[in-house]
Amino acid sequence: RWSANVDLKAHGDKIKRLPETCDSWTLVDESDLGESAADLLRCYGSTLRNYVDSETGNKVNVAILFGPRGPTAIHIPEICFDSVGTTQVGERKMETIDLNGKTQSLWSVKFSRDENPEPSIEVWYAWSDGSEWQASKYPRFWMTETLYKVQVSGPVGDGKSTNPCKKFLTSFLPQLEPIKQRD
Predict the structure, then answer these.
(1) What distance in Å separates the CA atoms of residue 58 and residue 165, rounded to the nearest whole number?
(2) Across the beta sheet with 86-99, what order do the strands follow?
(3) Residues 126, 132: Cα–Cα separation, whole Å
(4) Is the CB of residue 146 less than 8 Å from the CB of residue 176?
(5) For residue range 98-153, what is the model confidence (pLDDT) as tens digits?
(6) Phi first, then psi: what are they for 7, rounded to 5°?
(7) How many Å is the maximal CA-CA distance in the chain?
(8) Distance between CA atoms of 23 and 86, rounded to whole angstroms?
(9) Can you give the pTM of this predicted structure?
(10) Helices (H), strands (E): how many in the chain?
């Protein structure tokens, strides 16, 4: 009664307004969450997108979710990827990206396929309550009703050139800022 009434579905629909290009990355295709995932996560808005880097040919998959804190917070790649035939390689690490003088922190975790011990997939993910992206250990305990989640998966960096997920996120995260702002 003492706060503004926000149409969460209308706010979540803003996710569909993301640009098709950002720097050297171009949207290849876009889809919605599957019905069972949408029911589980109870999202007010979401999108699944695939981008390709015209400079390197690297491809990344990005998921953007906006929904209730609980379901949005507990769905992490360490659980999801392990259930689809991949194996986590090593512990997740906190990574940072500096954008416009603000530090964004994200988790990164690597996975291997087909019992190959070498990682072939890297996933970066974080949550936001509308401010900076955070690699939170306990996002479901944030004092907010809703959260955004960004999750990017792509090839593992070779250590010699720019990491594909980090390169994408450095270009993409600024595109999410206007979406996170409440009207």
Answers:
(1) 9
(2) 21-22, 25-31, 45-53, 59-68, 146-155, 121-128, 102-113, 86-99
(3) 10
(4) no
(5) 998 999 999 999 988 877 778 889 999 999 998 899 998 877 777 778 899 999 99
(6) -80, 100
(7) 56
(8) 31
(9) 0.89
(10) 5, 8
